From TrEMBL:
Sequence ranges assigned to domain Pyrroline-5-carboxylate reductase catalytic N-terminal in this UniProt record: 3-110
Name of the protein this chain belongs to: Pyrroline-5-carboxylate reductase
Taxonomic lineage: Eukaryota, Fungi, Dikarya, Ascomycota, Pezizomycotina
Cited Gene3D superfamilies: NAD(P)-binding Rossmann-like Domain, ProC C-terminal domain-like
The keyword Coiled coil appears for this protein: no
Residues that, per the record, bind NADP(+): I4, G5, C6, G7, T8, M9, A80, C81, K82, P83
HAMAP family in the cross-refs: P5C_reductase (MF_01925)
Database matches in Pfam families: F420_oxidored (PF03807), P5CR_dimer (PF14748)
Positions of the Pyrroline-5-carboxylate reductase dimerisation domain: 180-281
């Protein structure tokens, strides 16, 4: 597998699949992916990768700038470069031939499959039948194996579907979504964490104003969030949870009433919709 543009997200994915390959070797099993190539743009970036993955250099090759060569030598290509570099990378001479018959996985924001295909195939040419592009959106929790990755469903050989799902399962959970729902699914997988951080900051501020130290408040709130996540994971509906927490004339219903007065629910809904629309605009 070649990772084109192995920065923060590419490195997180690489960490996950390298660890899985190491476990397979330890169990004397055939690893799903045996060799890795990571491309970067500078010698300093290359050195950082070699240092970070120093124990895996027998299976990992780090190269500078030779994206086409890395594509030629791989069966699976992961596009993890900056989105603005996608056209330069994919329109380069030799890329179309290098990708023929292969699986291309893109984690580029605002880059629909049709847009990537347009970069690969020259204007006026018929679209090739044997380049399979899979689109995915993950979040920064991939760095420690707790990402939620939204994977766009698209027609392709079963073995490509299987290996795509396996790769992202090494950095967290996966959720397949239809192409027309990828943007909104991506918002819930990625930007939603930033939205929630605003709410968390507000609660921390309130706790500090009422006398708690911020570090203590953060510890309490973090565990409360983990508890909430576990309840949701078990199938509880948010509305049911609110009802269970709310007793007549109690503290919870008082706080919920305050949130409703300030239209917080609408504000979060609006943020999700706005982010999804922006993703669609970027992809045009």
């Amino acid at each position: 597998m070649s990772i084109i543009g192995c920065g923060t997200m590419g490195s997180a994915i690489l960490q996950g699949v390298l660890s899985a390959s190491s476990r397979s070797e330890a169990a004397e099993e055939e690893p799903k992916i045996a060799h890795f190539i990571a491309t970067v743009q500078s010698s300093s970036s290359a050195e950082k990768l070699r240092t970070r993955f120093s124990s895996c250099l027998s299976r990992l090759e780090v190269i500078e700038k030779d994206n086409v060569g890395a594509m030629q030598r791989a069966d699976i290509i992961l596009l993890a470069c900056k989105p603005y570099m996608a056209q330069t990378v994919l329109a380069a001479p030799g890329v179309r031939e290098a990708l023929e018959g292969k699986l291309v996985i893109s984690v580029l924001v605002g880059s629909p499959v049709e847009k990537l295909e347009g970069f690969i195939f020259h204007p006026g040419r018929t679209l090739g039948e044997h380049i399979y592009i899979k689109r995915a959106m993950l979040n920064i929790a991939a760095e420690f194996g707790e990402s939620m990755t939204v994977i766009e469903t698209s027609p392709m050989p079963a073995e490509f579907e299987e290996i795509s799902n396996w790769i992202f399962s090494q950095v967290g959970e996966i959720a397949p979504v239809a192409p027309d729902l990828f943007d909104i699914g991506g918002v819930l997988a990625g930007p939603s964490s930033a939205f929630l951080s605003v709410a968390l900051d507000g609660m921390l501020d309130g706790a500090v104003k009422e006398g708690l130290k911020r570090a203590d408040a953060k510890k309490i709130l973090t565990q409360s969030l983990l508890s909430l996540a576990k309840l949701l994971e078990m199938g509880e509906h948010p509305a049911v949870l609110r009802e269970r927490y709310s007793s007549p004339r109690g503290t919870t219903i008082e706080g919920l009433q305050s949130l409703e007065e300030d239209r917080v629910r609408y504000a979060f809904s609006k943020a999700v919709i706005a982010s999804s629309k922006r993703s669609q605009e970027i992809g045009k």
